Please model this.
Amino acid sequence: MGAGRQGGGCLGGLHELLTSDLDRQVLVDILRQIEAPVMANSARAQVMKLCSFGVEHGWLQINPTNNLPRNQESKRQVILTEPQITQIWPLLTAPLKFLLATGQHRSEVARMKWADLHSSTWTQLDTKLGQPHSLVLPELAMALLPEQKGAYIWRSGRAEHIDVSTLSHKWLEASR
Model:
């Protein structure tokens, strides 16, 4: 956990505690040290799973994570200005330009199949919201599509389709 980070990673020495020293207040104190609310909630979820596992296997008598407070997360909303788009556009790969041109979710673009594209209409059957969705693609988006090879539009050298994490990583790289 947190190799290479000062202070035992984001869970500040939790790995050094004995199970007998684990209690709710210790966990609350450790989680409060994590400044980013989303990261703290992710850590909380992992600790809860770990403690449940400990109870199931008899290493803990009670689960100290019961009613552990959860941080309030705020939804991010980023609206790029035209000058920002102009500045970043040359640094983006075709799938990222397609994301920007269509405003669709990364996961939907990553799993986009040629079979879902009819003329310039992209019908998404497996969406993040669970509802089918059709979108008429603008000319700009159509011009970004690669040559057809295989079932998926956005391919990876190692897999059938590009991974969502690859899109996220490439976006962060370009936005720096």
The first strand starts at residue 117 and ends at 118. The radius of gyration is 22 Å. The chain has seven helices and three strands.
